[in-house]
Each structure stands twice: as structure tokens, then as C-alpha cells.
């Protein structure tokens, strides 16, 4: 009886071992999968294409070039075909581009609306200043509009243009006083009888105004330049910064994804369909790894992006106060009036210099024998005012409110990859979950995540091949962001922030022979040394670098899917089992089965040993 019981116990243990091993290893597709009906339904539900692109039953398609990497062996049947795979690739690419666009869209709209509003306010203030200056010249100094209109219009047009293009403010202000000087002499300095004889010297007075001593307008032109330059240059730097931020958004909106990125996105989101595993979401770690690899080029501009937003924040703090643009434009008509008053009061002092230089007739005389001053109190009802409540305070409040919104977008490009993976509908949110798609089966994602930086991704990312050669558009954008940031810092009282080291300038140094210096004596012949892929004939001799990084020594080898060919007739499949020997097994059946079987066998051995 005891012998029978021993056999019974042995059988029971054997069954337990078998069941535990089977249950633990069920991480991939069911080998008995005999229909693709659910895959076809999901394919049509997502409007990926015609249902006929998905087979009715699993089949083998040697032309699979992306999802073949997720299968256990090349002859494994699946619910994917070459044609359905192409649709998956297109949709995966669209998913990422749509996410980038969505994250950019709100900020882009916010900046565009603010720029429009800010420019309108500036233009309105300039127009008010222009109108008040003209009225003051007419009402206080009895100068006909026809005589001062051109000079006033030129000055304020230059102020408006200064916000959009390069205008030399000292030249604009000097030209205004050159043009207005003969008008002031004629209407406000000489008496009416003498004024009629000064028409022939109008050009001379305008040409030599700056040579007359003492200066007719004193230091007022220089003070006006100083005030205008202080206020307008800060506002222009502010607008320039916002425009470069917009350029960054537009550049990233049209980001071109590399084929390797598209393939990784497809494996992440759709290759599970090939095995009928649509109900499982991609693992969060798998998503993070793929997105960081695809968006490493955006993470590369992250430091410059954060720097310029920080500099805008500091600049805005100094835009208010007595020297703000609205206060300066409000005071400008009075500053011009003070300059004219100075010329009228001090006319006797520069009269002889002016008379000698422009050969003014000796019979000409100052009004009343000296400079005259306006004695009428003008009707100020014609003067427009920049209401401080609606212009000054409200404008600054709007700028501050916008800046607070802008600061929220610090880290946008550095963290975008991780942010995309926080979508619970698309991706598993439990980092430790074992019930998610890890790229080969349903199990936890075991790969170590790489830092988002470009160099780290190029060296360590196992899902996406990342090139160290920065896209020319992104390189130019980095340079522009850095340049505008320096300009912003020149307008603040704080010490310029140390610029983040650009990979293109320090961490990665390019030379004519395409060598890439990673620093610390480590050099790559080109970015392909990271993957041991190489190019060219290989016959040419190259100078020995300090250290040449080899993918065999530094980076674990990974299976590289073949290029995705659009023309299937020209497609040449790779040799069977190419690079299979070192392929990382993300939770494969072999590794998962071994542990329970070994433990079970050990228990059986202990039982029999009794």
C-alpha cells in the first residue's frame, strides 16, 4: 500500500510541475492560434486599411521586416502580412507626430496670440505719441502742420519699424532734430519779418545743425535716444525671443522620423497584433525606451529651450517701472518739447555760430531780441493720453500672466518622450506590471532605461538606433536659441547664465573626416561605429583615434531589422537566424520555463530520495 502511495505522490508532483511550468510560461502567443478574426476586426476598427490585408488564419510571410523581430522563429505563423505591416508603420508614425503636434499646438496658439496683442499695444502707443507730438508743435509753438508733419512721421515710423527690423535709433533721432531745426528757427526763434528771408538757408540749417555750437537742443537728443533705446530694445528682445520659441515649435512640428524609429514604434504598438495579443497594452518601460530613442533629437535642444524661457522670465521682471516702454512713449512728446524750449531760450548763445555757418543776413533778428517762449496755454483737449490703467498696468499684467503660462512649458522637449507614455489608454502605467507587451511576449520589460540625452541614447538604447549626427535644422535651431538667449541676458541685470554645453560643440566634436569625439580620449570614426555597421569599401586607411568604440565591446549586439522597402519585388530577405545568437530575450518562454521546471524537478528528487 505504501508503495502504491509513493507512486501516487510521484504522479501528483509530476503533474504539479507540469502545470506550474505551463502556467508560468504563458507569456506569448498561443501556438494553437487558428484564427485572425479578432485581429482583422481591430484592424478595420482603427481604420488602418481594408480587412483583406489581414489574413483569416495565421500564415507565414517572409516579407515581414518589422514585426518579424517579435516572433520566436522565422517560420512562426502570424496574423501580419507585408501589406498590413506597412499600414501599422504608417499609423505608428502618425501617432507620434500627432502627439508632438498636440503638445505644441496650445503653446503655439498662446504665443501667437500674445505676440499679436503685444505688437498692437506698442503700435497704438506709438501712434498716440505721434499724435500728441504733432499737436504740441502746432498748439504750443505755432508751427504749421504742413511744416512739421514729415519730420514727426519719419521719427515715429522708425520707432514702429524698430520693433520689426534693424533701425539705428541715434540716427533716427538725429535726423528728426536735423529736419525740425529749420522749422523751429523759422517759426519760433526769428521774428516774422526775418523768417521770410530764411527760406534759402533751410537746407544749410538742417545739414549743419549738429555742428552749431553750443548745441541748439543741448543734451536732450542724447537723453531721448537713451530712453528710447532702453525701452524699445528690451521690447524687441522680448519679441525676438518669442519668435525664436515659435520657430522651435514649428521645427519640431515637422520632425522627420528615422526608419528605425518608425519600426520601433510599430513593434511597440502593433506587432502584438501579429500574435493576437491586442488586449494587452505595451509596457511603460518599453514605451519610455522607444519614445526616448525617437525623440532624443528633441531632448538635445531641451537645455537651450529651458534657458531661453528662464531668460524671458527674468527679462519680463524688468519691463515694468518708470522706464517701461509705455512710460517712455508717454513722456516722449514732452521730451521733444523740452528740447525745443531749450533751443528757443538759448538761441542768443548759438545765433552767431549759426549765422556764420549758414551766412544768415545780418539784418535777421531774433524775436524781441532774444529767444521767445510760448506764452499761450494750449487746449489740451486735443491731446490723447495713454491711460495708465488700461495701457501700463494692464499691459504689464498681461505680459506677466503670459510669462507664467510660458514657464509651465519648461522641460517640454526634455520630458516629451516620458509624457507621451503617461497615456493610460495607450500604455500600461504600472512600471512593475508583468501583464503587458514587452516587444516579444506578455511579461515585464526588463531592459534598463537610458538617460534621454542624445549621447546616452546613441550608446545604450536597445530599441532604437540613434545617430549622433545632429539634423542640420536642429543644429541651426540650437545655435539660434543660444544666440537669442545671450541677447536676452544682455538686457538683464543678472550675470549671464552659463550656457548648457551643446553636444555639437563639446560632448561631441565633429571634424572633416567625420570623427566624433565623445571626450575623455574616446573617439568614434563615425556614428556607425556605435553599431558596428560601417559603410564604404573599407580600403582607405584612417588615422588611429584615441579609443575606437566597438559595439562588440561596449554595446550589446541586437538584431537589426532589414530596411523597410517600399517595393516588395526588390526585397531581399536576410539569411535565416541572422544575429540571433545574442538577441536579448525580453521575457521569452525559454527563460521563463527554466525556473519552475528546475524547482519542480528538485522537489521530485527530494521526495524520491526519502
UniProtKB/TrEMBL annotation:
Name where it mostly resides.
Answer: membrane
The record's annotation in Pfam families points to: Glypican
Ribosomal protein among the record's keywords? Answer: no
Classification via InterPro entries:
Glypican (IPR001863), Glypican_CS (IPR019803)
Residue ranges the record marks as coiled coil: none
Q: Per the record, where are the segments of Basic and acidic residues compositional bias?
A: 554-570
Q: Does the keyword Transport apply?
A: no
Q: Where is the signal peptide?
A: 1-27
Q: Where in the cell is it found?
A: Cell membrane
Keyword list, A-Z: Cell membrane, Glycoprotein, GPI-anchor, Heparan sulfate, Lipoprotein, Membrane, Proteoglycan, Signal
Any one GO CC term of this protein is:
plasma membrane
Q: How does it sit in the membrane?
A: Lipid-anchor; GPI-anchor
- Stretches the record annotates as Disordered: 517-591
For this protein, the record's PANTHER family field holds: DIVISION ABNORMALLY DELAYED PROTEIN, GLYPICAN
Q: Which family does it belong to?
A: Belongs to the glypican family.
Indicate what this protein is called per its UniProt record: Uncharacterized protein
* Organism of provenance: Sinanodonta woodiana (Chinese pond mussel)
Task: Give the organism's phylogenetic lineage.
Answer: Eukaryota, Metazoa, Spiralia, Lophotrochozoa, Mollusca
